Amino acid sequence: MNFELACLEDFNEIENLYWDLIDKSKEEPSFPDWKKGVHPSADFLMAGIVQKELFVLRDEGIIKACAIVNSNSNKEYKKVAWKVNERDNNVWIIHALAVRYEYRGMGLATQFVKNLISYAKLENIEAIHLDVIDKNTLADKLYIRSGFKYVSTENIFYEVVGNRQFRMYEYVIE
Question: Are strands 127-133 and 91-99 parallel, antiparallel or unpaired?
Fold first, then answer.
């Protein structure tokens, strides 16, 4: 299993991973209400690749998990009582972590997060923040199991879902 940055040649495979996941899991209770072409959008994914912020977990040439990781946060993040506050790109935020539909339940999201934490340490990142939409209890379990701490619940507006409650999580890197 290789944890690495995506390249331009990966774009179609990554976009298909998200679209297939949306099609096959949108009726599930924990589905985060992503919408094809809206979030994650093709522009969002391409920018992640170009800006070297889209990471993949690849096995035998197949991208099995991916996410965009950068320091771009929603304005509501500024209100949260984080242990480590954002300044000078010292904090990463995980966006749109996804596992290819047919590989779910195999621990790949956990492996992706562990790899990301290890990489963050090498890059001198102080913390990783993220938000989880109110109904995504599977994501809650993943992040808690991976050592993230629940910080608060915030009302956040995202274009794709409108105003919703999101649970905020933080992993302080030591």
Answer: parallel
Q: How far is CA 72 from the centre of its chain?
A: 12
Beta-bridge partners for 164: 156
Identify the DSSP state of 77. G
8-state DSSP, 79: G
Q: Other C-beta atoms within 10 Å of 56: how many?
A: 23
List the structure tokens of 154.
Answer: 């915030």
Q: pLDDT tens, 112-151?
A: 999 999 999 999 999 999 999 999 999 999 999 999 999 9
What's the CA gap between 171 and 83, in Å, rounded?
9
Tokens matching residue 95: 């966006």
Q: Are 98 and 6 in contact (CB under 8 A)?
A: no
pTM of the model: 0.95
CB atoms within 10 A of CB 112: 25
